[in-house]
Specification:
0% strand, mainly alpha, 180 residues, 92% helix
Length: 180
Amino acid sequence: RRLYFDTHALVCLLEEKGFTTQQSEVIVSALVKIMNTNLDMIYKDMVTKVQQEIALQQVMSHIAGVKKDMIILEKSEFSALRSENEKIKLELQQIKKQVMDEITKVHADNKLNLNLEKSRVKELHAQQDRALTQTDRKIDTEVADLKTMLESHKLDNIKYLAGSVFTCLTVALGFYRLWI
């Protein structure tokens, strides 16, 4: 066993800090005894390389025994588990097929309902378009009637204005002749 620190340097350090030489040596020897006792305790718990090899061989033989037992179990009990597993797989495939059939049925029903709703919506749009077209025609007719009335009133106003202007001109010419 070797100690991995310098005992003489520790004695010198203790002497520098105020201990006597005898006190420093006693402290260092106590520390060395404590460390040796601790090392003895640690070494008792450790195994040697030979012991480790023996333990490894024992573990390997146990593993080989377990492997043999597993092979025997696989041949006997695992075969029952495999057949049960196959039955469950078949049941799952049947259930999967039923679910897929139901999904297809629901999908088809939804598609049909969607197409019906689309046709209803198209019919409503067509009715709204017809109503809008009729309303546009009525509005166009009313606007045309109003334009016609406006034009006729405009012509009447122009006639009255022209008549008034000619009347005023005639009167003005009459006064002009009288004064001249």
